[in-house]
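U., I forgot to send this yesterday:
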Amino acid sequence: MFKFNLPKELIAEHPAKNREDSRLMVVERATGKITHKKFKDIINYFDEGDVLILNDTKVFPARMYGNKEKTGAKIEVFLLRELNAESRLWDVLVDPARKIRIGNKLYFGENDNLVAEVIDNTTSRGRTLRFLYDGSYEEFRKVLYDLGETPLPKYIKRANEPEDTERYQTVFAKNEGAVAAPTAGLHFSRELLKRLEIKGVQFAPLTLHVGLGTFRTVEVEDLTKHKMESEEALISSDACKIINSAKEKKKRVCAVGTTVMRGIESSVSTTGQLNPYVGWTNKFIFPPYDFSVANCMITNFHMPESTLLMMVSAFGGYDLINKAYKEAIKEKYRFYSYGDAMLII
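Result:
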């Protein structure tokens, strides 16, 4: 049902030259009309009092390369989350995993200036590492930063380039903790945000730390059996006030990205009010679903059979989104993280 053939050349390997120059497909739910614009034209769809909900999570350089003790084999270590700051414990993925056992030591940096010991297996590729480092926590984080690189998704088949450090991050990124960028937000330049602000559009930031689960495709026939990986979320009372007030005034409330949509739908009252939230969410949204908060959404073009495509289909309507994707392929829109955008109104 959510399968489609995507020509390889439509997977965006690089971002658009300027953030707001990406293409924008506008999809109108009421009429089924589809129009083709540039992302900077988005300003024409928002008026004073409308709200854009942004995910201000910040991607950290999660991908590191180390060597295994004795054999010197090169091992990729992907930092997923910090488990304990004091003990320098991290939840990671390792590749190739079959070579990495409990008790192994991994060495990082040109002079092996960072060492980690494998202390547990979590999944087939997952391990718990304890980093052995004598300096302060700040120094340790700096070493991790210097050794890590921007965690571009695996479907981008090129090596990292200097521009990725800046471009695989939204201009409003603030709270560190994501291992993948909230990609709908990548299209906003500082100038575009300023122009929206001058027009009277309000911004309500929330934080949802995007995990690797965002790239997992659904492999079960019965969607109710798909398990989403939990992601940490934080919605402030200030953001709730801005959003709830705009809803009451029947303004446009726009979720910028599937991560925002999942965040707000995880913390909603029976009357459709958004509540402050601090915690984890593993909410999986697929058709049919009644959305309580946002009446409009900005999103990129997603992978076949992904949870993200399912959520967008639930919001835009399965048939309409299906038609929009066919048109996107025909019109050679660019797909995935560095690709083009869709506005559903």
